[in-house]
Amino acid sequence: MESSNKEQGDKRFNQESVTVTIDNSTKEINKGVYTLVELKEALGVDTNRELLEIKGNEPKPINPNSKIHIEGGEEFVSHGKGGGSS
Question: What is the CATH number of the domain that holds 73?
Answer without folding.
Answer: 3.10.20
